[in-house]
Structures are given as C-alpha cells and as structure tokens.
Amino acid sequence: MNFIVFDLEWNQSASGKRYTNKKLPFEIIEIGAVKLNSDLEEIGRFNELVKPKVYKNINRITGNIVHLNMEELRNARSFDKVLKSFMDFCGEDYLFCTWGNLDLIELQRNIKFHHLQSLSDEPIRFLDVQKIFALQFEGKKSQHTLEYAVDLCNISKDIPFHRAFSDAYYTAKVLTCLKPEYRERYSFDTFHLPKSKKEEVRILFDDYYKYITRGFDTKSKALNDREVQYSGCYLCKRRVSKPIKWFTNNSKHYYCVSCCKKHGYIKGKIRLKKTEDGKIYIVKTMKQISEEQMQEIKEKYEKIKNQAQATS
Ligand SMILES: [Zn+2]
Fold first, then answer.
1. What spacing in Å lies between the alpha carbon of 232 and ligand 1's midpoint?
2. What does the mean pLDDT of the chain come to?
3. What pLDDT is attached to residue 256?
4. Residue of 92 and 141 predicted with greater confidence
5. Among 191, 234, 263, 273, which is 20 to 30 Å from 88 by CA?
6. What is the CATH number of the domain that holds 102?
C-alpha cells in the first residue's frame, strides 16, 4: 500500500459571508501531493492549480497566506480535470494522509458540489499526521502548526510553506519521523456515514477500541442503540460488573466504567455528533484505565448526581 500525503489550498468569498455559496464555502484552488511507498520512500509528486468556478476573486486572507493571484488560476484546468489526474496519480491501493482532518472533508465537499463521483460512499480511513505527531511527542491530543512539527523533527526548510505541494511535502517528511506503529493509528473521515449496521466502523487499536455508528434521526434513537449502550469488556466480551453506569455532564459526552475480571477497569466514552444534514451519529471509545483514573471518573459522576439531587 502507498501513502498519498496531500494538501489543498482553497479560496472563499472575497466579498464576505453574504456572498458565500453555502454549498461550497471553500473552493479548492490547488492540490499538492507526495506519494510514498510502504517503506515511506518518495515515488511520485503531484502539483496543480485549479481554475475557480464560484469565487473568482482571491479572498484577502487566502491571498496573504497562499500568495496566488487570479491570473495564474485563470490559466489552470478545471476541478473535474485536475481531480481526474489526481485520482489517477493516487492509483488503486493507497491511504490518504493529511495534516489535520479538514482537507479530506473539503475535497469531498468540492467533489459533491461538482457532481463528480465520490471518493467513497462510506467513512474513509486516513492518517491525520497532525494527530499522530501530537501523540508521539506529547502523548495527547493537541494541535500544532506544520512548521512547528518541521522544526521539532529537525527537517530542513528548503521550500516556503503554505502552498499545497510544499505542505504535502513537509507533512510527508514529518510522517517519516514518526514511529512505524503510529501508521496504524487511523482516523475516519465521516463525510459519508456508514449506511447500515453492518457497515459501521469497529476498530481495535493497541490500547483502545473505536466504534462509529450509522446515522440516526434523533439523539434518543442513537443513544438507545444496543451496541452504543453496551458497556461490557471490548477485549474478551465477558460479563462485567458496572461500578459506574452511563452518565453525562453536558449531554454531548457520556461516560461509564465497567470492571472485567481479566482486564480490569474499562472506561466507555460516547460522543454525540451531528452531520451537516442533521443526522445524529455516535463515536464511542473503550479503553482500559487504572484504579486512579476510575476514581477520578467516580468523583465526576458523584458530583453530577449530587447536583441533580440538589436541584430536583
Ligand atoms: Zn475482559
């Protein structure tokens, strides 16, 4: 399998929000990519401007960052043609890699706007290099700029940032500095949700389990799904005791703790999410935790329970 590390530049309305096309708030004006083989050796490059159809003036912010002028874009090929070449460049067996999770969403939004064939009709597995960079260097979720990562990895800055190709190039360089096991820390783009129960995403990572549901019409339907509710052991599926049943502090996030005789304490977390067309879906994670972590959640739980009793 190859890695397609890509980056997009996009433009937006130059005349403010009132003139924004809601179906296409960000119009792609450049696609840049580096293709790496399974040993992360570079085997190809892609770099092309895109002629805009919706926003024909460069937004001031875009212009200041990207340093592109309309003259250059007017001579470029249209989105459908550039996309076709880009997909040919990607080939058959590849994994997308991006800095952050926005590029894959905007790519799909542009594809939909132009009524072109979608990349996939289900969630797309990809590597969010920004996320795994933070995991490796900080052991947690945090967002840094690409330049910060390039500096930290001692990568020489031989081309300017903020053009699609250069950012893809640097993202690929950062990826080669990360531990090989992190190349399996997939993210899932949910521009298209799983269409049925069968297609839902269930993935066991080395230290946690992730489940992404199909879309539901209402929050209660989502929360009442049996697999969403399930709080047993994700490792052995054995019966467990449930010291802390599902509870919420803000009704967007729910937590629970189970205890498996073999695997100890297991924390469940549910995040409620909403798609642009109003569907509700759930991202659920389960993870082994320590006694202390269990106590922390228990304190949270009791605080919320006492608050509820005080107000009722
Ligand atoms: Zn177990």
1. 8
2. 92
3. 95
4. 92
5. 191
6. 3.30.420.10
Out of 158, 184, 210, pick the residue that ends a domain: 184
Ligand 1 mean position, distance from CA 264 (Å)? 7
Say whether both 106 and 244 belong to one domain: no
- Give the chain's domain count: 2
Say how many Å lie between the CA of residue 13 and the centre of ligand 1. 53
Complete DSSP assignment for 251-277 = SSEEEEEEEETTTEEEEEEEEEEE-TT
So what's the pLDDT on residue 310? 81
So what's the pLDDT on residue 206? 85
**Is the domain of 160 the same as that of 31?**
yes
d(CA 186, CA 188): 7
Q: Report CA Rg, the chain.
A: 22
Q: How far, in whole angstroms, is CA 125 from its chain's centroid? A: 9
Q: Which amino acid is at 75?
A: N
Going by the DSSP 8-state scheme, the letter that residue 288 receives in this structure is: E
Instruction: Name the packing angle between helices 129-138 and 164-177 (round to 10°).
Output: 40
Contact 262, 251 (CB under 8 A): no
Instruction: Give per-residue burial for 21-47: e unless 16+ CB within 10 Å, then b.
Output: eeebebbbbbbbbbbbeeebeeeeebe
Does residue 66 or residue 74 have the better pLDDT? Answer: 74
164 pLDDT band, cuts 50/70/90, is very high
- SS3 percent helix, strand, coil of the chain, rounded to 5, is 35, 30, 35
Identify the pLDDT of residue 277: 85
Residues 153 and 219 in one domain: no
Question: Residue 160 CA to chain centroid, in angstroms?
Answer: 26
Q: How far is the CA of 195 from the centre of ligand 1 (A)?
A: 30
Distance 205 CA to ligand 1 centre (A): 15
State the Cα–Cα distance between residues 165 and 138, nearest whole angstrom. 27
**Which pLDDT tens digit goes with each residue over 228-280?**
999 999 999 888 888 899 999 887 899 999 999 999 999 999 999 999 889 99
